[in-house]
Amino acid sequence: MEPKGKILIIDDNEDVLFALNLLLEPYTEKIKVTTQPARIGHFMTTFQPDVILLDMNFRRDAISGQEGFDCLEQILRIDPQAVVVFMTAYADTDKAVRAIKAGATDFISKPWEKEKLLATLSSALKLSQSRKEVGRLQEQVLALKGNDDLPELIGNSPAMQKVKETIFKLSDTDANILILGENGTGKDLVARMLKHFSPRQEAAFVTIDLGSIPEQLFESELFGYEKGAFTDARKSKPGRMEIASGGTLFLDEIGNLSLPMQARLLTAIEKKRITRLGAIEPIQIDVRLICATNADLHKRVTEGSFRQDLLYRINTIELRIPPLRERGEDILLLAEHFLTKYNRKYHKEAKGLTREAKNKLLKYNWPGNVRELQHTLERAVILSENNLLRPNDFFFPHTTAGNDNENIQELNLEKLERKAIEQALKTSCGNMSRAAELLGITRFTLYRKLEKLGL
């Protein structure tokens, strides 16, 4: 029995309490015992036990176990995450099943076998530690998110009004949502808005960029692992799905998942439970999934590179985010927003854009969408010495001089991507981190694109 913790034992037989105290004392941090179920609230508040060992039958009723179930209900009202192990001398299968359904963790018969009792309590202490760690992580996530204002989705174009209307229509649903759109269109921002306007508004919002996680780390990141599960697993760690339980899990770039990883994700979604690496017992989860991708998943299903059954699970609702080039004067609204933001950040005083600068922004095709516009405004604010930003303050690495918009439309996607990467590497003098930042992607994604394009 490796883990140590605090155990509260509730039994009306003082001889049982004495024996259990004597037996468990070497294996625990501290033990409290009581013969009075009425003192449960007091001990849970002052002692805060990790595990509660609860007798099922007290003096009022020595057979049915109803008193034990009443105590369990009281315990779970005080702490829904409490770990409770039932004890009874009148064990039967029906009671065991009923106990587990009512929220007990396990069931021990009297008289007990020492090794079985120690093994049961060891598992219960591990479960308690796991639940507390998940709770701490969820609190950290909420603390990080709790100070944020309502996510701001800027845009008055008909295309963006439609997106906003759809988000508000979904505010009372818990359905899984698939967000589709090109890179840089703001799919992560839409995901946060969907979470904000949802029944899980106050719960955790956990994100995973599947494009930045190597395949060999996918399971440990998503499902977690137990101590000793692999060489560097020095302590147990909950996965992202476990941390997100009760809240929302945002899987970005889900189109990057390999078929084996798709199968593992599908199993977790269907069964609503996961098993940590190195663990035996599964963990129940309750997550609302929001996924995002720039890939055509329906086409990939036809090609055999994406599972149709997984697509059906994640796209109860599909929400398409329009590219920036289809949003008209939203470009100028966003430009003003980023101008204000970077004036404040870099202590600049640029007051606006000239008419010619606005026309230049409106004519550009924006292959990198809102993310590219944001970086373009940031560079302009940093480098400009003018009160008004002018056309020559804006540099578009995807175009050639004197032909900003025409050439960009002639390029196919692969040529455009190759040219953007080459320009980013040139601008960053070969610094991969800086090049990835300029392109608005992760280093891992940049490496994959370099390999794909043979650069």
Structure characterization notes:
The structure is a single chain. The chain folds into four domains: 127 residues, Rossmann fold; 173 residues, 3-Layer(aba) Sandwich (Rossmann fold); 75 residues, Helicase, Ruva Protein, domain 3 (Orthogonal Bundle); 45 residues, Arc Repressor Mutant, subunit A (Orthogonal Bundle). The protein is 47% helix and 13% strand. The chain is built from 19 helices and 16 strands. Strands 2-1-3-4-5 form a five-stranded parallel beta sheet, sandwiched between helices. Strands 7-10-13-6-14 form a five-stranded parallel beta sheet. A two-stranded antiparallel ribbon has the order 8-9. Helix 4 links the parallel strand 4 and strand 5. It is elongated. About 4% of the residues have low confidence. It comes from Bacteroides gallinaceum. This is Sigma-54 dependent transcriptional regulator. Keywords: ATP-binding, DNA-binding, Nucleotide-binding, Phosphoprotein, Transcription, Transcription regulation.
